[in-house]
């Protein structure tokens, strides 16, 4: 059963009809955040580099989209443009983020884009911002003790991420710090959702990071896997967490959003059991830094859910196959 039920949203969600904006609306997480907000009765303004691009067409088919969704062009590096886009909005969900493990220029876009979003939101009179961070900004620290419980107070080691070429984690660290500092300077309410590896059914057609992660194992492109644990979160729970922290006025700061913590061997065995025809590796290499225990938190005391069961994983892989 899906953790984020459309019926539950329709039955329990209040019909707010207030206007909110979602940056990166056409992306994997962004699309589900838009869907969740529409199901809760919000009017949604979604941003994209090119709203007319066919890759955003799926948004127009969502329930409530015809009446309460508008797509508009936005440039994260153009503060005046963002001010115009956010005009009249009560809240902003800053989900958009460039993704690259190798391009340092994208970190500039992530950080300066975040700075512009926060300040443009404040200029436009927005009262609350929800920022989408990443577990990559939390767990990458080679000096952390294996006995440390990783929680919202933990940060990845920026120098370690940079030295190992992990520009994505570098960009998420700096973008989140920038969001926190700028929001404090402008007196803006800020809540940060920090999801782990996000999987689940895709609304968009484009291959995203989570699908590519499984793709590499299914095709045999990944010849080895790390001898380590990792956190996994269903995208529907991530979307729900965004709505919850927005609607809870007492929600401040960071909220880890994590549904299950599995050793990679367990995760790959699930794949092998479901799809024995694929050349999924069983070779392991030692991880680069000591494993740490993880406190699995769902934002604002959402009920914990095991999201890597067979049903969800099968749906996820079927989406990739299609």
From TrEMBL:
Q: Which Pfam families match?
A: Epimerase
Residues annotated as transmembrane: none
Instruction: Please give one Gene Ontology molecular function term for this protein.
Output: oxidoreductase activity
Q: Which residues form the NAD-dependent epimerase/dehydratase domain?
A: 20-251
**Protein keywords:** Oxidoreductase
Q: Has keyword Ligase?
A: no
Q: Which PANTHER family match?
A: NAD DEPENDENT EPIMERASE/DEHYDRATASE (PTHR10366), NAD-DEPENDENT EPIMERASE_DEHYDRATASE DOMAIN-CONTAINING PROTEIN (PTHR10366:SF793)
Task: Specify the protein name.
Answer: NAD-dependent epimerase/dehydratase domain-containing protein
Q: Which organism is it from?
A: Triticum aestivum (Wheat)
């Amino acid at each position: 059963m899906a953790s984020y039920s459309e019926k539950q949203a329709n039955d329990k969600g209040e019909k707010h009809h207030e206007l909110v904006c979602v940056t990166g609306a056409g992306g994997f997480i962004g699309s589900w955040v838009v869907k969740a907000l529409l199901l809760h009765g919000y009017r949604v303004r979604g941003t994209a580099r090119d709203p007319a691009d066919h890759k955003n067409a799926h948004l127009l088919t969502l329930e409530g989209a015809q009446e309460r969704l508008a797509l508009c062009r936005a440039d994260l590096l153009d503060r005046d443009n963002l001010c115009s886009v956010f005009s009249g909005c009560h809240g902003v969900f800053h989900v958009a983020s460039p993704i690259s493990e190798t391009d340092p220029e994208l970190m500039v876009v992530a950080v300066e884009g975040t700075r512009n979003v926060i300040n443009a939101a404040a200029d436009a009179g927005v009262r609350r911002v929800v920022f989408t961070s990443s577990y990559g900004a939390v767990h990458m620290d080679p000096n952390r003790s294996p006995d440390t419980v990783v929680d919202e107070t933990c940060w990845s080691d920026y120098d370690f991420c940079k030295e190992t070429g992990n520009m994505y984690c570098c960009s998420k660290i700096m973008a989140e710090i920038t969001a926190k500092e700028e929001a404090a300077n402008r007196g803006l309410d800020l809540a940060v959702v920090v999801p782990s590896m996000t999987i689940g059914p895709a609304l968009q057609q484009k291959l995203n990071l989570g699908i590519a992660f499984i793709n590499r194992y299914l095709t045999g492109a990944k010849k080895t896997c790390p001898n380590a644990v990792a956190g996994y979160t269903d995208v529907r729970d991530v979307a729900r967490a965004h709505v919850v922290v927005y609607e809870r006025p007492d929600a401040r700061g960071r909220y880890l959003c994590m549904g299950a913590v599995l050793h990679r061997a367990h995760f790959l065995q699930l794949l092998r059991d479901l799809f024995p025809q694929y050349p999924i590796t069983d070779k392991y290499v030692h991880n680069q830094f000591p494993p740490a225990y993880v406190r699995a938190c769902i934002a604002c005391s959402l009920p914990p859910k095991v999201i890597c069961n067979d049903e969800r994983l099968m749906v996820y892989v079927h989406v990739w196959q299609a």
